[in-house]
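Data availability (excerpt). The following record was deposited with the supplementary files.
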Amino acid sequence: MQDLRDFIKGIEELGELKTVHHAHWDLEIGAITEISASEPNPPALLFDEIKDYPSGFRLLSNMFQTQSRTALALGLPPDLKGVALVSSVREMLKSIQPTPPALQKRGAIQENVFFDKEASVLRFPVPKLHRQDGGRYLGTADAVITSDPELSWVNLGTARVQVIEERKVALYVSPGKQTRLIAQKYWDQGKACPVAVVCGIEPVLFAVSGLGLPWGESEYDFAGHIQKAPVQVVKGQVTGLPIPATAEIVIEGEIPPPEVESVMEGPFGEWTGYYASGTRPSPVIRVQAVYHRNDPILTALPDFKTYPLSSYLFLVFCAAGVWNEIEKVGITDVTGVWLAEWGMRFFIVIAVKQRYGGHARQAAHVALGAREGGYLGRFVVLVDDDIDPANLPDVLWAMSTRCDPQTSIEIVTQCWSSPIDPRIPPAQRKAGDFTNSRAIIDACRPFAWRNHFPKVHSIDSDFRDQIMQKWKHIFNQR
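Predicted structure:
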């Protein structure tokens, strides 16, 4: 298995790693990360000698902010880009051969273990990332491990984790997510939910923890499928949960029912670019144990307001998931799916080679009705197969020239949204109604007269490749 340290070596070999010394955990790490992210081909940042912390207690940010690093994390060729990268990920999501984790007696994560009063989460350089955040966030690039009390399957999910006290953190999970549904089963029995949170995480585990796998399917098994080898795990000494043997940092504890104990969590600068979910009561994790490797690396994923996005991992997996969901119901000839870097789930582009009237609209409605495409969206844009959905200027050109606002835009209401949606009105938010509407924007040539649509003037792809190769010294090819 490629652990985080192997991944960092790979980033370094790509020439995409910068080490930063002496930054402050309070706002400086977040600001440096955001400013660096606005550069062309932004590097991953490894912070060391962080203010108030010993040398070797490091923090890694901007891990997956380029497509090359995303491909590297998944064991794919680093030169894969756009729809080709999504297609490779899509194949991973097909014909899954679950590979259960392998239990080990010892692992690197057990090099340092602390219990009870010594189990302080502030052993690590937990950052305050944005000026108006409610506090320091230990979990932004993490995996929350729980186990269904009835079915005994192990789930990994992403969730944000805010430090409240040295041995108490707040856990924010959106309604409808599997981590919360599992915890609710324990709470309904009046029990605390056992939990482990991986805060220095292997790339593959971070990738799968953000997926919406079907209920009962473990992300550990899927991670084994991706890397073609079992994930090595050790048994948590407090909860008995399997924790990754080569993780950097893990906290272990329990989540009591919210009526027993909850705290105000937030606000946090979310990936939408807003503080939409505000501050509200959230469940807590009572920390009972802390594990870390020697010279541990905390992983962080600060969210940004605008392009470039903070992680291509979620983008390519979500796009691949939407593509597969459409094809599973028999809609053929989808040629590509992409999510806009500056909008992510809010802006999904689907390219279709139209075979019959209504073909493209079918694809959009399937996407909105399925789990991956149905959560927290805003726009679904349909384009013809001559448009690269990963080329947003191309997509906007198609919208501008092939979409008639009166006949090409369709509104769907009462869709699954989230408290982090900034457009939910205050009264609706207060009522706990986390639904929204979606617009389907059909930017395809009208099927009935597609052959009479004005022809596009542009060089063909083969000639473009010839020119790019012959005159490569004058083109900026990254």
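Summary of structural features: The first strand starts at residue 17 and ends at 21.
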